[in-house]
Amino acid sequence: MTTSQTRTIGYLCPACRAKVIQPRAAFALAASGAAVSCACGRSCLTIDAEERRFRLAVPCGVCGGEHTAALDTERMLGDKGVGLACPQTGQLCCFIGADYEVERELERLSLAADKEAARGEDDALFTDSLIMHEVLSELKEIAARPHGVTCTCGSERYTMEVRPACVDLICADCGARLRVDAATDEDLDRLCCRWTLQIKGNQGG
Fold first, then answer.
1. What percentage of the chain's residues is helix, strand, coil (to nearest 5)?
2. Structural domain spans, the chain
């Protein structure tokens, strides 16, 4: 067995939908395990080191719950990446491996979660499903830019609510909302012309 010097751990936060990606030294994992927390403070992946295996508790950005898994030392610390799936949906919910592998898999996971959100947890029907999916994709691109989505209160953390004809961006700190229409070609065109988005906050600005 070969052992990587570091292992990068990634999951999608079920509370704020942020991609949580953090490296950990392999020797430190083997000695005492690790905790990988989202910056929002509302989710944490824990890894407990046992004699010949690791026990993980993974917040699931797919179903919103938490799953446990056990990995032997070779799978956890070896050179090959390993993915953990949500038992309810079969979709990947956590990936451990090299930086580029984790980034790639978490991007796929985030897109899948966006599509699931677009279907509506309450089975709401969209005015135009294709437009909604395009709007969600464009919002993801905007959010990936430096200071892509901000609030005048100073925060850059937000959550998202998907509705039948629009998407609400909600500041995670002050609760202010920015409504993005998502029902017509004109709505999509207007969004595509925006490089960044700013929520008008409930304080400051």
1. 30, 35, 40
2. 6-112, 120-199
